[in-house]
Amino acid sequence: MLRRFQYRDDATIDDYLGALELGILEDETRTEERQRGLSGEGGVFGTKLGGERSTTRGVESNVRQNAASKVEKLFRLLRSSDPREIWDLDGLTDDDWACLDKGSLINLSVDITVPTVSRALAAAKDLGPLVTLMQAFTDSVEDETAQQMQRLSQYGADGGSDRYSVVAAAEGNPKYKFLCRLGKTGLLVPLEHLEGTFQLFGQIEDFLAAGQRELAVDISGMGFMNREQRRKASKKADDSTHDHFIVGPGAIVHVIALYK
What angle do CA 97, 167, 238 make, to 5 degrees? Predict the structure, then answer.
């Protein structure tokens, strides 16, 4: 199956392949048998003789794995293992959900939205020139707003956050939500391009009970807040900031790949 990746965590993929195969096979020699038919005609003492024969020879080729082929191999190994190591959840049901555990690997179609805060952080480094341009053509940018945008721009210029969060809902059963953790190095497209329907391949880190809120914000410094503090912060958020948190039932997911 040909896949177009928007996000891929190559380090995790290598780790899982290494665990399943007891090492990473970077190159593979394949031998293909090719059969060739031969025909000939000759004569002995004026009598014609004809016949056909075939020969078989092995043709060796050296195949090097790339990132996409490693994903294909990982899917094949996970699905062929006994017991099966991955849950394919297109058409997710309540019974399916009840069978999942922390650490379960899942693959399903989801509808993704990118929270406003994540969008702002991803675009932070570009805000400085924007403020200058806006101030040059209009007086509507207040000094305080301009200063805030400049500080955010400096944050982006200094490297910004090394991770982002997006929110996903199961396409077949949208009451189930997923808070998807992404590493910046795994993004293969700009963050805003993750809006829409994708296949989510990831590992469940934790669950959210029905009605339970979790902040959909993942920036440097959030690690100093424990889970209870993050949930208290999400409870204080009003409906005008609804895209800053998700409400269970759902799960927090370490994303291995997003693809179409």
Answer: 105
